[in-house]
Amino acid sequence: MKLKIGLAFIFIVFIPLVFGILLDHMASVGEMQGMWLKIFAGILVAAFGALVWAGLLTKKLVALSEVSRMVAEGDISRTVEITGKDEVGVLAGSMKIMVEQLREMVTRVKESTDLMTEAVMNLTTSTSEVTQSTTEIASNIQTIAKGAETQAENVERIAGVAHQLAETAVSIAEKSRDSENMAITSAKRAEEGNDAVESAGGTMKEIVSHVESTSMQVRSFSDHASEIGTLVEGITTLSHQTHILALNATIEAARAGEAGRGFSVVAEEVRRLAENTRDLASQIAGLANDITGRAPEVAKHLEETQEAAQQGLLKTAAVSEALDRIRSAANETMEAVRAISREAEVQAERAASLAEPMEEIQSIATENAAGSEEASAATEETTASMEEINQRAKFLLKEADTLRSQVEVFKL
Amino acid sequence: MRKLIVTRIEGRLAGLVSDEVSEILPMPEVTPLPEALPGVRGAAFVGGRLTTVVDTASLLGESGNGDSLELLLRMAPPHDHLALPISSVEFVLPFEPLKLKEEEQTGMWRGVYPWGENFINVIQLPGVAEELTGAVSSALHVHTAGREHGA
Hints:
The complex is a heterodimer.
Chain A: H1 2-25, H2 31-72, H3 87-256, H4 261-407
Chain B: E1 3-9, E2 12-17, E3 21-26, E4 40-46, E5 49-54, H1 56-60, E6 71-75, E7 82-86, E8 88-94, E9 109-115, E10 118-123, H2 125-150
């Protein structure tokens, strides 16, 4: 090959040069025309020579060129049949190998492109599915986050309510203890009241007894007063009669004259005594009548007092019974309040024990809400990443399509 | 010694000389006499004797004040068939005739007798008897005869 090229170089360069030199020596014709003629001749000669040599040398090259052209056009289905041991043959062999490798490469590229396309499609599908799933997850996480937030809020409210409940339970326990003390006091008061009523009942009985006795005495006094009145009437009658007798004695003494003077004095004294007796009797009668007249009123008052005392005794008994019932009710109330107080204390303890777990739950719920927010953010980032992957997958697909379109240029 | 028996008649004090009084009795039951003369209340049995009871109010010209007549004062003889009802004997005074002022006597009134710073009208019972005896005695005796015949 090198030889052919050398020879070709000689034909192409040296022959025209030589010819030109020869012609220089023949420079009788115009120098310019001669130059041009030289050139033209040289060129013709060179060209002819080149053609000949090219024809000889480049036939294979042309074949190789044709192969190269076809390869360049993408047709790599043809094989290089040129053989030889010269450089062209070596070149042909190399090109054959090259074409075969190129074909193999293009085939692999096609296959890889197809696989890549398929993989990209699958990736796109997967990314879409992942994006959809991620979107759903993000939505669910958002929902969970909102739910966690709501839960945290509810837990906070519940914690607040639990705290208030604990405080209320404590207050109820305290008030239950106060109520218990009040019930105890009420029971004691009822007991004291019952004792007082019983004492009053005893006193009322004594009063009734005294009133009855007094009433009997008043009736006796009234009877005595009536007797006194009767006696006073008798005394009055006697004094009246005595007075009349004294008057008559006075009259007889006056009629007797001097002899009756002493008798007149006596009669006069007797008359005065009778008058005094009558006056005293009248006073006694007045008092007796007053006593007798007031006795019924006193007796009536005593009867009313006795009746009132009886009524008081009955009411005292009723009050005693009521106080007994009150005392029983107070005792029952006290027992019930004690039970309520104990229960309230238990509830207070339970409510107090509930507050701490609720605070923990609240803290956990808050953390869950924050975690959900973070998860949601991460999901959104994932979604964005998936979207970016999808975009890049689309880009790869596009590039794969481009590569395929370029590879498909090659005819296998 | 004579006494002035001061009585209460028709609400006022009236004195009676003890010489003109026979006795003083509790007021008995007086039986009214039909168609009796004015001044006569009725008749009563006093000490077993029928006695004419005088209507004091009419004799005094009073209409009667309604005071209860508790005593009956029988006159001294000879008019012991007459009796004067009175309300009461208030008191008895020594009677001194010289103190009696007779210039004011009218009808049955004898005069006035001093008593402290006051005066007591004094009744003369004989005068009262004289006014009634003639008119009453006949009617009384007729009535008495009828009753004795019936008994």
